[in-house]
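task queued by scheduler; priority normal; single chain, no ligands, no partner chains; default sampling; output format set to structure tokens
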Amino acid sequence: MNKPQISVVLPVYNEAEAVEEVVQQVIETLSTAGKSFEVLAINDGSQDCSEEKLLKLQREYPQWLRVAAHVHNKGNGAALRTGIRLARGEIVVCMDSDGQHRAAEMLNLLAKIPPYDMVVGARTRDYAGKWYRNLGNHFYNWFASWLTQYPILDLTSGFRAMRREAVLHFLPLFPAGFSSPTTLTMAFLKAGYSVAYVPIQVYPRTLGKSKINVLKDGRKFVLIILRMIMLYDPLRIFLPISNFLLFLGLAAMAAGVWAAGRLVVPGSSVVLFIAGVLAMLLGLVSSQISNATITYHGDEFVKLYEAPFSGANEES
């Protein structure tokens, strides 16, 4: 079979009430747009009739829909990893199968590849999510933006399009749970790939229930952010810690001098100075290891502006 240009990966876990409509919307949108595509639905050990519905849809759309299944539930990230590995398209689109994303907005993401390597659907400010989730997402966006020194509009959005050749570099880093979008965003940015954001409208799910645990998965998001920065740019973490400890040491020394009326170096200052120096040295060693082991990418699409060739200066 000819390879399609686009592979749409849908992780499915207990989404029997919504997955049929989602698959039909994707097929209708891309076929109407005249795109060469395939849809990969990855049943992640669903306990409802999701797999039966997917197999029924595959019989209806054999030229477009492929179905794979895990023998037991492994997690959203594991399902995405399986789908990306099985994808045959040059561009991979990942979206949720619970009906919160609209397939029509996929075309806006695809329009920016190339030159971008990954395009993320960023939830708009009027997204009607629960307040504590919105607050958490704002914190993740700010924290990741500060660490990567790049404005991240939506760190955890599951609706994104990317070049398969680029994302294959990071499959071993995929966590099994819901932290794969966070991993992808951080990895793409720190490895030198170009990332763009397109505003999308996300709708509240009307069927089924969310699989995300706010406390458990929220802690994982923070750990993933720190893990990716430690992998690519550890000084971004160690240097602020070192500076903070050295500042506390100076503050403790100043307080000791003021209280004693003479030059003294309190024991607390010595401990803080040593801790600050050790943190800096540990960061330098980690940075050396990172630079020696990480391969940077992102050179595939570069705009090059050159003056038109003129034969006037040509010499034989």
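post-processing summary
- DSSP finds ten helices and seven strands in the chain.
- The chain has a mean pLDDT of 79.
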